[in-house]
Amino acid sequence: MTFSKIFENSVEEIAKLPGIGKRTALRLALHVNKMKDADVQALVNAFSDLKSKVRHCRYCYNISDDDVCEVCGNPKRDRKVLCVVQDVRDVIAIEATQQFSGLYHVLGGIISPIDGIGPEQIRLSELFQRIDNEEIEEVILALPATVEGDTTNFFIYKNISGKVPKVTTIARGVGIGEELEYIDEVTLGRSLLARTDFNQIYQKRK
Amino acid sequence: MTFSKIFENSVEEIAKLPGIGKRTALRLALHVNKMKDADVQALVNAFSDLKSKVRHCRYCYNISDDDVCEVCGNPKRDRKVLCVVQDVRDVIAIEATQQFSGLYHVLGGIISPIDGIGPEQIRLSELFQRIDNEEIEEVILALPATVEGDTTNFFIYKNISGKVPKVTTIARGVGIGEELEYIDEVTLGRSLLARTDFNQIYQKRK
Most buried among A19, A29, B12, B65, using CB within 10 Å? Predict the structure, then answer.
């Protein structure tokens, strides 16, 4: 169909990437075919470096150029607060808020029986080890507000409850800028149950 | 921002691809970082093969695994009809219609002064050489219906008019399934001027 087996094979490989359909893969393949040699080499190196050179922090499993990541290696971070997240994207998102000064623990996934991901497939034993060995005062569970996220939250809670003074989860509620009429009932219900004292918000703003 | 210079560099390289934004590049990079070694190798090979192994047909510049592409090498194709297209994607699109049995000439672009693409940047001299050396009875101009396409059409026409018995362009008109009220005036106007004898369509259908 495209007159070149090699070309077709490349398109198929590119189309395996998440969110890249056959049409986009074809467009990308034709673009790469027209790129300069040096640019293709840079792109190829970029992909291969992601696997061969990018490392994971030995403590929190965040991506890193070294053995220990920038967060864990920063003496200004509060080592007694641990924020548990699904993956590196969440670390980036939370860092962007500038509202968190503790350390992270990147699970690398969440429990999802339908996808064949059980507690052993993600870095839960590493989390429990950290909690056993480090002096942690609060574990913040910042996992997705989905069934899988809730399952993982509960699993972690069951295993660490009693070993850490405080286990919290990020607030579920109405997003900033959202209209109440468009919010689903569960979220709205929860945001009523977990209502915040206005004094508290007001004092934070001051 | 992402705790790894190598990672950031890879994201930037990926984001240079057309239609891939910074966010998508980040998502792809994290995915590749999690892929199996062998899969990353296959992806890297796919990209590098596109440049190093995929060839272009010596006659029409279509992509090919050999010196001559499947179309040009097919003895059943009508060698007297030449269809001029912008790039390989157009060859694929036209082949999918199964309405064309001639040969192609892939320009590799169209004249676009705003992008710095003049007649020398695309394979026009190669086209004119083919027309001088081969016995061609009809040149079909199948370029985009844009200002750049029209400019290129006119440039080609000026150079080959008199050397080829027939120069045609694909019909511009109302697309199948389109409602007249939504068509722009120029297209609708042209489709009236270039109206087709109904007998002709009826006889083709029989």
Answer: A29
